[in-house]
Write a structure and sequence with these properties.
389 residues, alpha/beta, Aspartate Aminotransferase, domain 1, 3-stranded antiparallel sheet, 13 helices, binds pyridoxal-5'-phosphate
Length: 389
Protein backbone atom coordinates (compact mmCIF):
# COMPACT_ATOMS: atom_id res chain seq x y z
CA UNK A 1 0.00 0.00 0.00
CA UNK A 2 1.22 3.50 -0.83
CA UNK A 3 2.09 5.75 2.11
CA UNK A 4 -0.99 7.74 3.13
CA UNK A 5 -0.81 11.43 2.28
CA UNK A 6 -1.71 13.94 4.96
CA UNK A 7 -4.75 16.10 4.23
CA UNK A 8 -4.09 19.56 2.76
CA UNK A 9 -5.41 21.07 5.96
CA UNK A 10 -2.92 19.15 8.10
CA UNK A 11 -0.07 19.86 5.71
CA UNK A 12 -0.80 23.60 6.05
CA UNK A 13 -0.07 23.58 9.77
CA UNK A 14 3.40 24.41 11.04
CA UNK A 15 4.87 21.86 13.47
CA UNK A 16 3.45 22.46 16.96
CA UNK A 17 6.00 24.71 18.61
CA UNK A 18 6.01 23.26 22.08
CA UNK A 19 6.41 19.70 20.81
CA UNK A 20 9.62 20.77 19.02
CA UNK A 21 10.98 22.44 22.13
CA UNK A 22 10.12 19.45 24.25
CA UNK A 23 12.09 17.25 21.87
CA UNK A 24 15.17 19.48 22.15
CA UNK A 25 14.82 19.47 25.92
CA UNK A 26 14.51 15.69 26.13
CA UNK A 27 17.57 15.24 23.94
CA UNK A 28 19.60 17.64 26.11
CA UNK A 29 18.45 15.88 29.28
CA UNK A 30 19.20 12.47 27.81
CA UNK A 31 22.77 13.69 27.37
CA UNK A 32 22.79 14.24 31.14
CA UNK A 33 22.71 18.04 31.12
CA UNK A 34 21.15 20.09 33.91
CA UNK A 35 18.66 22.24 32.04
CA UNK A 36 16.90 25.35 33.40
CA UNK A 37 13.60 25.10 31.59
CA UNK A 38 12.03 28.51 31.00
CA UNK A 39 10.25 27.15 27.96
CA UNK A 40 6.68 25.95 28.32
CA UNK A 41 4.02 27.84 30.32
CA UNK A 42 3.12 25.03 32.70
CA UNK A 43 3.08 25.98 36.41
CA UNK A 44 5.59 24.02 38.49
CA UNK A 45 3.41 24.56 41.59
CA UNK A 46 1.07 21.70 42.53
CA UNK A 47 -2.73 21.78 42.31
CA UNK A 48 -4.03 22.89 45.74
CA UNK A 49 -4.78 19.82 47.94
CA UNK A 50 -8.49 20.59 48.48
CA UNK A 51 -9.02 20.32 44.70
CA UNK A 52 -7.12 17.02 44.52
CA UNK A 53 -9.18 15.70 47.44
CA UNK A 54 -12.42 16.66 45.69
CA UNK A 55 -11.29 14.69 42.64
CA UNK A 56 -10.34 11.69 44.77
CA UNK A 57 -13.70 11.63 46.51
CA UNK A 58 -15.61 12.10 43.27
CA UNK A 59 -13.58 9.42 41.49
CA UNK A 60 -14.68 6.86 44.11
CA UNK A 61 -18.35 7.54 43.33
CA UNK A 62 -19.54 5.15 40.62
CA UNK A 63 -22.17 7.67 39.52
CA UNK A 64 -19.34 9.72 38.08
CA UNK A 65 -18.01 6.93 35.87
CA UNK A 66 -20.32 7.49 32.93
CA UNK A 67 -20.37 9.72 29.87
CA UNK A 68 -20.81 13.31 30.96
CA UNK A 69 -23.10 14.63 28.24
CA UNK A 70 -25.39 17.62 28.95
CA UNK A 71 -22.90 20.39 27.96
CA UNK A 72 -21.15 20.08 31.31
CA UNK A 73 -22.76 19.39 34.70
CA UNK A 74 -25.40 21.98 35.62
CA UNK A 75 -23.70 22.32 39.05
CA UNK A 76 -20.38 23.17 37.39
CA UNK A 77 -22.02 25.67 35.02
CA UNK A 78 -23.70 27.31 38.01
CA UNK A 79 -20.38 27.47 39.88
CA UNK A 80 -18.80 29.17 36.86
CA UNK A 81 -21.65 31.71 36.65
CA UNK A 82 -21.32 32.46 40.38
CA UNK A 83 -17.54 32.87 40.10
CA UNK A 84 -18.05 35.25 37.17
CA UNK A 85 -20.51 37.32 39.12
CA UNK A 86 -18.13 37.53 42.10
CA UNK A 87 -15.02 38.22 40.02
CA UNK A 88 -16.34 40.51 37.27
CA UNK A 89 -19.81 41.45 38.45
CA UNK A 90 -21.21 39.98 35.24
CA UNK A 91 -24.39 37.90 35.22
CA UNK A 92 -24.32 34.74 33.10
CA UNK A 93 -27.17 32.31 32.50
CA UNK A 94 -25.57 28.96 33.42
CA UNK A 95 -27.86 27.10 31.02
CA UNK A 96 -27.26 29.11 27.87
CA UNK A 97 -24.24 31.35 28.38
CA UNK A 98 -21.68 28.96 29.91
CA UNK A 99 -20.03 25.92 28.31
CA UNK A 100 -17.43 23.76 30.11
CA UNK A 101 -14.47 22.72 27.95
CA UNK A 102 -11.80 20.02 28.01
CA UNK A 103 -9.29 22.82 28.60
CA UNK A 104 -9.75 26.16 26.89
CA UNK A 105 -7.43 25.09 24.05
CA UNK A 106 -10.05 22.57 22.99
CA UNK A 107 -12.78 25.21 22.78
CA UNK A 108 -10.55 27.77 21.07
CA UNK A 109 -9.44 25.28 18.42
CA UNK A 110 -12.99 24.04 17.79
CA UNK A 111 -14.79 27.39 17.83
CA UNK A 112 -14.06 28.35 14.20
CA UNK A 113 -15.69 25.08 13.05
CA UNK A 114 -19.01 26.49 14.23
CA UNK A 115 -18.88 29.81 12.36
CA UNK A 116 -16.15 29.90 9.72
CA UNK A 117 -16.81 28.84 6.14
CA UNK A 118 -14.13 28.11 3.56
CA UNK A 119 -12.33 31.32 2.72
CA UNK A 120 -13.74 33.38 5.60
CA UNK A 121 -11.12 35.51 7.31
CA UNK A 122 -10.34 35.35 11.01
CA UNK A 123 -8.38 38.23 12.54
CA UNK A 124 -5.58 36.70 14.55
CA UNK A 125 -2.96 38.53 16.60
CA UNK A 126 0.66 37.83 15.75
CA UNK A 127 2.53 36.71 17.84
CA UNK A 128 -0.15 34.54 19.43
CA UNK A 129 -1.07 31.31 21.17
CA UNK A 130 -1.00 28.96 18.13
CA UNK A 131 -4.56 27.46 18.26
CA UNK A 132 -6.16 30.76 17.05
CA UNK A 133 -4.32 30.37 13.76
CA UNK A 134 -4.44 26.60 13.53
CA UNK A 135 -8.10 26.28 14.55
CA UNK A 136 -8.91 28.74 11.77
CA UNK A 137 -6.98 26.65 9.24
CA UNK A 138 -8.73 23.45 10.38
CA UNK A 139 -12.07 25.14 9.69
CA UNK A 140 -10.99 26.14 6.17
CA UNK A 141 -10.66 29.80 7.16
CA UNK A 142 -7.86 32.22 6.42
CA UNK A 143 -5.95 33.71 9.36
CA UNK A 144 -5.45 37.44 8.79
CA UNK A 145 -2.60 38.59 10.98
CA UNK A 146 -2.84 41.62 13.23
CA UNK A 147 0.76 42.48 14.23
CA UNK A 148 1.31 43.06 17.95
CA UNK A 149 4.12 45.60 18.03
CA UNK A 150 6.08 46.98 20.97
CA UNK A 151 5.30 50.56 19.90
CA UNK A 152 1.56 49.84 20.30
CA UNK A 153 1.95 48.15 23.67
CA UNK A 154 1.42 44.82 21.86
CA UNK A 155 -2.19 45.73 21.08
CA UNK A 156 -3.54 45.30 17.53
CA UNK A 157 -3.89 48.45 15.43
CA UNK A 158 -7.32 48.02 13.78
CA UNK A 159 -6.73 50.97 11.42
CA UNK A 160 -4.06 48.89 9.62
CA UNK A 161 -6.41 46.07 8.64
CA UNK A 162 -7.08 46.11 4.92
CA UNK A 163 -10.62 46.91 3.81
CA UNK A 164 -10.88 43.80 1.71
CA UNK A 165 -9.88 41.59 4.61
CA UNK A 166 -12.35 43.34 6.87
CA UNK A 167 -15.19 42.53 4.51
CA UNK A 168 -14.32 38.83 4.69
CA UNK A 169 -13.60 38.75 8.41
CA UNK A 170 -16.01 36.84 10.60
CA UNK A 171 -14.16 36.38 13.88
CA UNK A 172 -11.38 38.10 15.76
CA UNK A 173 -9.21 36.61 18.50
CA UNK A 174 -7.77 38.78 21.24
CA UNK A 175 -5.86 37.64 24.31
CA UNK A 176 -5.11 39.78 27.36
CA UNK A 177 -3.24 39.36 29.61
CA UNK A 178 -1.23 38.21 26.62
CA UNK A 179 0.77 35.14 25.87
CA UNK A 180 3.58 35.49 24.79
CA UNK A 181 4.20 39.23 25.29
CA UNK A 182 2.88 39.63 28.86
CA UNK A 183 1.00 42.76 27.69
CA UNK A 184 -2.29 43.81 29.29
CA UNK A 185 -5.31 45.68 27.92
CA UNK A 186 -7.28 48.44 29.62
CA UNK A 187 -10.95 49.29 29.39
CA UNK A 188 -10.28 51.77 26.56
CA UNK A 189 -8.86 48.98 24.42
CA UNK A 190 -11.84 46.72 25.04
CA UNK A 191 -14.22 49.58 24.21
CA UNK A 192 -12.40 50.30 20.94
CA UNK A 193 -12.39 46.59 20.09
CA UNK A 194 -16.09 46.24 20.74
CA UNK A 195 -16.95 49.34 18.68
CA UNK A 196 -14.72 48.17 15.83
CA UNK A 197 -16.21 44.67 15.89
CA UNK A 198 -19.78 46.00 15.86
CA UNK A 199 -19.05 48.40 13.02
CA UNK A 200 -17.61 45.63 10.89
CA UNK A 201 -19.81 42.73 11.96
CA UNK A 202 -16.95 40.73 13.40
CA UNK A 203 -17.46 38.46 16.40
CA UNK A 204 -14.89 38.71 19.23
CA UNK A 205 -13.25 35.68 20.83
CA UNK A 206 -11.47 36.91 23.93
CA UNK A 207 -9.03 34.49 25.52
CA UNK A 208 -8.70 35.29 29.22
CA UNK A 209 -6.66 32.26 30.31
CA UNK A 210 -4.36 34.49 32.39
CA UNK A 211 -7.01 36.73 33.96
CA UNK A 212 -6.01 35.66 37.48
CA UNK A 213 -2.21 35.66 37.10
CA UNK A 214 -1.48 39.29 37.94
CA UNK A 215 0.92 41.33 40.05
CA UNK A 216 1.20 44.37 42.24
CA UNK A 217 -2.27 45.91 42.45
CA UNK A 218 -3.25 45.12 38.85
CA UNK A 219 -6.49 43.16 38.21
CA UNK A 220 -7.39 42.30 34.59
CA UNK A 221 -10.95 42.95 33.42
CA UNK A 222 -13.29 40.87 31.27
CA UNK A 223 -14.62 42.20 27.97
CA UNK A 224 -18.05 40.99 29.13
CA UNK A 225 -18.02 43.76 31.74
CA UNK A 226 -18.79 46.24 28.95
CA UNK A 227 -22.47 46.91 28.41
CA UNK A 228 -23.89 44.84 25.56
CA UNK A 229 -20.62 42.93 25.02
CA UNK A 230 -22.50 39.63 25.15
CA UNK A 231 -24.02 40.51 21.77
CA UNK A 232 -20.60 40.49 20.18
CA UNK A 233 -18.25 38.35 22.24
CA UNK A 234 -17.41 35.04 23.82
CA UNK A 235 -14.69 34.66 26.44
CA UNK A 236 -12.50 31.62 27.05
CA UNK A 237 -11.33 30.79 30.58
CA UNK A 238 -9.16 28.09 32.00
CA UNK A 239 -8.57 26.49 35.36
CA UNK A 240 -5.09 25.52 34.15
CA UNK A 241 -3.06 28.53 35.18
CA UNK A 242 -5.29 29.86 37.94
CA UNK A 243 -5.25 26.66 40.00
CA UNK A 244 -2.19 24.88 38.55
CA UNK A 245 -4.40 22.37 36.76
CA UNK A 246 -2.86 22.16 33.27
CA UNK A 247 -2.92 18.37 33.24
CA UNK A 248 -6.55 18.12 34.33
CA UNK A 249 -7.98 19.58 31.13
CA UNK A 250 -10.77 21.82 32.25
CA UNK A 251 -11.90 25.31 31.29
CA UNK A 252 -14.97 27.03 29.88
CA UNK A 253 -16.37 29.43 27.32
CA UNK A 254 -18.99 32.01 28.25
CA UNK A 255 -20.89 34.92 26.78
CA UNK A 256 -22.97 35.12 23.62
CA UNK A 257 -25.73 32.48 23.56
CA UNK A 258 -25.56 31.75 19.86
CA UNK A 259 -21.79 31.33 20.01
CA UNK A 260 -22.11 28.98 22.98
CA UNK A 261 -24.81 26.94 21.22
CA UNK A 262 -22.67 26.69 18.05
CA UNK A 263 -19.61 25.51 19.96
CA UNK A 264 -21.73 23.08 21.99
CA UNK A 265 -23.07 21.56 18.75
CA UNK A 266 -19.55 21.09 17.36
CA UNK A 267 -18.40 19.53 20.62
CA UNK A 268 -21.37 17.19 20.92
CA UNK A 269 -20.21 15.67 17.63
CA UNK A 270 -16.59 15.32 18.71
CA UNK A 271 -16.27 14.63 22.42
CA UNK A 272 -18.46 13.10 25.09
CA UNK A 273 -17.92 15.50 27.95
CA UNK A 274 -15.48 16.05 30.79
CA UNK A 275 -15.00 13.31 33.42
CA UNK A 276 -17.55 14.29 36.08
CA UNK A 277 -15.03 13.87 38.88
CA UNK A 278 -12.92 16.55 37.24
CA UNK A 279 -15.95 18.85 36.93
CA UNK A 280 -16.66 18.34 40.65
CA UNK A 281 -13.03 19.19 41.38
CA UNK A 282 -13.55 22.28 39.19
CA UNK A 283 -16.41 23.32 41.49
CA UNK A 284 -14.08 22.84 44.48
CA UNK A 285 -11.54 25.09 42.73
CA UNK A 286 -14.01 27.89 41.97
CA UNK A 287 -15.90 27.74 45.26
CA UNK A 288 -13.11 26.75 47.67
CA UNK A 289 -10.53 29.02 49.31
CA UNK A 290 -8.96 31.40 46.82
CA UNK A 291 -5.85 32.15 48.86
CA UNK A 292 -3.90 29.71 46.65
CA UNK A 293 -4.11 32.23 43.78
CA UNK A 294 -2.68 35.06 45.84
CA UNK A 295 0.06 32.79 47.11
CA UNK A 296 1.04 31.62 43.61
CA UNK A 297 0.99 35.19 42.27
CA UNK A 298 3.33 36.23 45.10
CA UNK A 299 5.74 33.48 44.06
CA UNK A 300 5.55 34.44 40.35
CA UNK A 301 6.04 38.10 41.21
CA UNK A 302 9.15 37.28 43.22
CA UNK A 303 10.50 35.23 40.32
CA UNK A 304 9.58 37.96 37.85
CA UNK A 305 11.57 40.49 39.85
CA UNK A 306 14.54 38.11 40.14
CA UNK A 307 14.58 37.49 36.39
CA UNK A 308 14.02 41.11 35.36
CA UNK A 309 16.65 42.41 37.83
CA UNK A 310 19.08 39.68 36.79
CA UNK A 311 18.64 40.43 33.10
CA UNK A 312 18.97 44.12 33.87
CA UNK A 313 22.31 43.47 35.60
CA UNK A 314 23.47 41.85 32.34
CA UNK A 315 22.43 44.94 30.40
CA UNK A 316 19.44 43.07 28.94
CA UNK A 317 16.54 45.51 29.38
CA UNK A 318 13.04 44.08 29.51
CA UNK A 319 9.70 45.52 30.45
CA UNK A 320 8.14 44.27 33.66
CA UNK A 321 4.85 42.43 32.99
CA UNK A 322 1.81 43.26 35.13
CA UNK A 323 0.30 39.86 34.46
CA UNK A 324 1.02 36.34 33.07
CA UNK A 325 4.13 34.39 33.94
CA UNK A 326 6.03 35.37 30.80
CA UNK A 327 8.92 37.69 30.10
CA UNK A 328 9.19 38.76 26.46
CA UNK A 329 12.71 39.77 25.53
CA UNK A 330 14.37 41.16 22.45
CA UNK A 331 17.20 38.89 21.31
CA UNK A 332 20.80 40.10 21.47
CA UNK A 333 22.37 41.76 18.49
CA UNK A 334 23.53 39.25 15.87
CA UNK A 335 20.88 36.67 16.72
CA UNK A 336 17.38 35.85 15.58
CA UNK A 337 14.76 34.08 17.70
CA UNK A 338 15.81 30.56 16.76
CA UNK A 339 19.57 31.12 16.97
CA UNK A 340 19.18 32.90 20.32
CA UNK A 341 17.14 30.01 21.77
CA UNK A 342 19.65 27.53 20.33
CA UNK A 343 22.64 29.42 21.77
CA UNK A 344 21.01 29.61 25.20
CA UNK A 345 20.38 25.87 25.15
CA UNK A 346 23.78 24.86 23.81
CA UNK A 347 25.95 27.36 25.66
CA UNK A 348 24.02 28.00 28.87
CA UNK A 349 21.72 24.95 29.28
CA UNK A 350 18.69 27.25 29.36
CA UNK A 351 15.47 26.63 27.47
CA UNK A 352 13.66 29.71 26.22
CA UNK A 353 10.93 29.73 23.58
CA UNK A 354 11.81 31.40 20.25
CA UNK A 355 9.33 34.22 19.60
CA UNK A 356 9.09 33.26 15.93
CA UNK A 357 7.20 30.12 17.00
CA UNK A 358 4.27 32.39 17.94
CA UNK A 359 4.20 34.03 14.50
CA UNK A 360 6.37 36.12 12.22
CA UNK A 361 6.02 39.28 14.33
CA UNK A 362 7.48 37.32 17.21
CA UNK A 363 10.78 37.18 15.29
CA UNK A 364 13.50 39.03 17.16
CA UNK A 365 12.14 37.95 20.57
CA UNK A 366 12.34 35.03 22.95
CA UNK A 367 9.93 34.17 25.76
CA UNK A 368 10.98 33.07 29.23
CA UNK A 369 8.39 31.48 31.55
CA UNK A 370 8.52 32.03 35.31
CA UNK A 371 7.69 28.40 35.98
CA UNK A 372 10.87 27.39 37.84
CA UNK A 373 11.90 28.26 41.42
CA UNK A 374 13.73 31.54 42.03
CA UNK A 375 16.97 29.68 42.81
CA UNK A 376 16.91 28.20 39.31
CA UNK A 377 16.29 31.64 37.82
CA UNK A 378 19.41 32.82 39.64
CA UNK A 379 21.32 29.85 38.19
CA UNK A 380 20.06 30.85 34.74
CA UNK A 381 21.27 34.41 35.24
CA UNK A 382 24.74 33.19 36.28
CA UNK A 383 24.90 30.97 33.22
CA UNK A 384 23.84 33.82 30.94
CA UNK A 385 26.52 35.99 32.52
CA UNK A 386 29.16 33.39 31.64
CA UNK A 387 27.72 32.97 28.16
CA UNK A 388 27.86 36.72 27.55
CA UNK A 389 31.50 36.82 28.60
N1 LIG B 1 -4.87 30.50 26.08
C1 LIG B 1 -3.61 30.88 26.22
C2 LIG B 1 -3.23 32.26 25.85
C3 LIG B 1 -2.64 29.98 26.70
O1 LIG B 1 -1.39 30.37 26.83
C4 LIG B 1 -3.05 28.67 27.03
C5 LIG B 1 -2.08 27.66 27.49
O2 LIG B 1 -0.89 27.83 27.47
C6 LIG B 1 -4.38 28.32 26.84
C7 LIG B 1 -5.28 29.26 26.37
C8 LIG B 1 -4.87 26.92 27.06
O3 LIG B 1 -5.12 26.57 28.33
P1 LIG B 1 -5.88 25.21 28.67
O4 LIG B 1 -6.19 24.49 27.40
O5 LIG B 1 -4.92 24.43 29.50
O6 LIG B 1 -7.11 25.62 29.38
Amino acid sequence: MREMKYSDRLAKLPPYLFAEIDKAKRQAKARGRDIVDLGIGDPDLPTPPHIVEALYKAALDVNNHHYALDNGMPEFRRAIAKWYQRRFNVKLDPDTEVLPLIGSKEGIAHFPLAFVNTGDHVLVPDPCYPPYRNGTIFAGGVPYLMPLLAENGFLPDFSRIERNALKKAKLMFINYPNNPTGAVADEGFYRRTLAFARRNNIFICSDAAYSEICFDAYRPMSILQLGGAKDAAIEFHSLSKTYNMTGWRIGWACGNKRAIAGLAKVKSNIDSGIFQAIQLAGIAALEGPQSCIKKANGIYQDRRDALVDGLDSLGWRVSVPKATFYIWLRVMRGYNSASMAKALLEKADIIATPGSGFGKYGEGYIRMALTVPKERIKVAIQRMKKFLR
